Amino acid sequence: xxxxxxxxxxxxxxxxxxxxxxxxxxxxxxxxxxxxxxxxxxxxxxxxxxxxxxxxxxxxxxxxxxxxxxxxxxxxxxxxxxxxxxxxxxxxxxxxxxxxxxxxxxxxxxxxxxxxxxxxxxxxxxxxxxxxxxxxxxxxxxxxxxxxxxxxxxxxxxxxxxxxxxxxxxxxxxxxxxxxxxxxxxxxxxxxxxxxxxxxxxxxxxxxxxxxxxxxxxxxxxxxxxxxxxxxxxxxxxxxxxxxxxxxxxxxxxxxxxxxxxxxxxxxxxxxxxxxxxxxxxxxxxx
Amino acid sequence: xxxxxxxxxxxxxxxxxxxxxxxxxxxxxxxxxxxxxxxxxxxxxxxxxxxxxxxxxxxxxxxxxxxxxxxxxxxxxxxxxxxxxxxxxxxxxxxxxxxxxxxxxxxxxxxxxxxxxxxxxxxxxxxxxxxxxxxxxxxxxxxxxxxxxxxxxxxxxxxxxxxxxxxxxxxxxxxxxxxxxxxxxxxxxxxxxxxxxxxxxxxxxxxxxxxxxxxxxxxxxxxxxxxxxxxxxxxxxxxxxxxxxxxxxxxxxxxxxxxxxxxxxxxxxxxxxxxxxxxxxxxxxxxx
Lengths: 287, 288
Hints:
The complex is a heterodimer.
Chain A: H1 3-19, H2 26-54, H3 63-74, H4 83-116, H5 118-133, H6 140-147, H7 151-175, H8 179-187, H9 192-226, H10 235-244, H11 248-276, H12 278-286
Helix pairs in contact in A: 3-11, 4-5, 4-7, 4-9, 4-10, 5-7, 6-7, 7-9, 8-9, 9-11, 10-11
Chain B: E1 34-43, E2 50-60, E3 65-69, H1 76-83, E4 91-96, E5 99-100, E6 108-111, H2 115-118, H3 125-130, H4 140-153, H5 169-182, E7 187-191, H6 199-215, E8 219-224, H7 227-233, E9 236-240, E10 247-252, H8 263-266, H9 268-282
Parallel strand pairs in B: 3-8, 3-9, 6-7, 7-8
Antiparallel strand pairs in B: 1-2, 1-4, 4-5, 9-10
């Protein structure tokens, strides 16, 4: 008897907290998460630093040197940022984002069309399965022949490789929406556009997001690979240059830049997902 | 082709309708809210065909609360989807408010069995209730007033900002009912709405249906497999047979109003009726 009201208040408190997604108790959670993330990393860096001091090797420069070199590569000079920052770092980021945006949009549009109609799904699925089995990186030579060695080729190549992840996930997310939810739109005479944007896409959004997540990793990978051949700038280009000139420190610095870039993208996606999909996380916690 | 069919058949309520009514006008009694005219439906074809309903004929007058009951798998859902215009019957036609169903009829709302799928989990309670009327020509304050009034009618005032998944199953179904009410339907279809809530919650929801039946000016069609519920809620009970479902009996329910979970269920007339319906269902549509 005495347990029940207590349980109730706890339940309502939790509901209260859930109603305003992620406000109270957030600071501590973030700190703990940061701790879990940075402590093992710090240990690795320290061990590496010690190892390279004890036994120096030209192939494995000390982490402090790598970081210092990266800062020197990107920042400083006459302005805040160096020319390399604009010419190479930002160039790669720009290509990646452009390709990612185009590929994601294409994937969502085609995936939704596939998900909505069983007929088109059945017709297109074998083609999709076949094409996406070709590793995207293997199609780069073809893209170069068809589109040349410019930025547009790189962006389209990234978009192509990225689109599959979004397309497959969107098609599966849209295709698995429960019939009742679709009937709801019809019964209340909701306009087709509103049905698409207010029922279908939100209902499929958890799966679409999962696709966008994998696609973001692929976008960075494809951007770098596309800069290995026929490029005159970009992080990929700089890596190949460093390799050719045996500048191992530069190579390591660019790899560090990519790691930071990858983490940053993940962080942004996390933030967007927490905002857009809080209902999904919270409703699942409930079950 | 269904328009030219004779609208009379043995025992059907459409008896007496003029056989040569003008094209495009509803068969049956003028002013009927719903006319089901020789409706049959078969899923698939060939060996795997499933004949779900066969030559159903009945009509529902405005403000009636009619329950449709039958053995499980009797095609109740098929019938309801046909009434809702979500399914075109293989034969025959459904007329709602004098218009033949070619799609979803105007002024119709539906409460689905599966509340967890019919409520949108990314919208708060109030936005779920406002969802069907959000695209209408009503002004914002008018919409707000409809939402508030509907939530009040189902006893969920104060839960506007909650999300469906923060509520119990019974409360979620109340939200679904409020959403239907805010739409101000002339016809409300309910598809086994209380099949997945516990017995006590169910009684509360049944009484909610009785209260909105009296409060709002609408016709209610209620599909259930619960015999007691079919009698308790309705002015009329339509008993379906096993598939292919035909209409076994159209029973008028005249019980004392207001109905009450305890006294109505003790009423000898109630006990007699529920026994009668149960016998019809258990015999699967054979004469008793």
